[in-house]
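User: Let's play a game. I give you a shape written as tokens, and you guess the letters that built it. Ready? Here's round one.
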């Protein structure tokens, strides 16, 4: 029976694309580089902000120096404006509330930098208790490396068999596979269903309410 759900953040709990696009484009303008359409950012994000900056830079400009320049402007801007255009996906607040009331432990594992991950969870879900909210940390490998999952398991004190990892991208499905835990792919996020299905997750859902149904159904089967 599952007792802990680990959620990805961007594209799973929150639609952060607009704020990410505005903030990164702001940094690009400050550094004299061309900007991108907001829809393009669905394919730029997911592997940490340094990889994001590398992807948005023009060919021939993808240097460490330029990545760090973009990072400075981005952090200054996004730290102030990260919740202006961001919203939870429909059904997510209700799902988290129901899971919490049913006694499930909840956690977040994100490749968004750690401070912003904490800020957004606190801002949008202030009444939900999470056992851990962990984002990208300096010196720690990003997903799909399973370190972030292992750290959450250690904090939550649960076995791998009790965990369901929920995410919207191949990176998330790969993370769950690397950690040896069951995965649930969600189709309302940034990536296509085919990207998720390539990793053969145990579950695929089209709405947050389906996650609750899966957990309740499994709980009843275990009780029989």
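Assistant: Ready! My guess for every position:
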């Amino acid at each position: 029976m599952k007792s802990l759900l680990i959620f990805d953040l961007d594209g799973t709990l929150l639609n952060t694309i607009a704020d990410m696009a505005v903030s990164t484009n702001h940094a690009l303008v400050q550094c004299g580089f061309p900007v991108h359409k907001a829809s393009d950012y669905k394919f730029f994000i997911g592997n940490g902000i340094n990889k994001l900056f590398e992807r948005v830079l023009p060919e021939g400009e993808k240097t460490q120096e330029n990545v760090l320049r973009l990072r400075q402007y981005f952090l200054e801007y996004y730290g102030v404006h990260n919740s202006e255009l961001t919203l939870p996906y429909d059904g997510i607040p209700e799902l988290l509330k129901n899971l919490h009331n049913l006694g499930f432990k909840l956690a977040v594992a994100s490749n968004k930098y750690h401070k912003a991950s904490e800020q957004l969870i606190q801002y949008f879900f202030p009444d939900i208790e999470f056992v851990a909210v962990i984002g990208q940390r300096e010196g720690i490998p990003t997903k799909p490396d399973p370190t972030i999952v292992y750290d959450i398991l250690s904090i939550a004190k649960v076995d791998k068999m009790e965990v369901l990892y929920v995410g919207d991208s191949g990176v998330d499905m790969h993370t769950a596979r690397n950690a040896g835990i069951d995965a649930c792919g969600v189709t309302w996020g940034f990536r296509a269903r085919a990207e998720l299905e390539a990793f053969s997750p145990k579950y695929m859902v089209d709405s947050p309410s389906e996650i609750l149904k899966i957990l309740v159904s499994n709980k009843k089967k275990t009780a029989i």
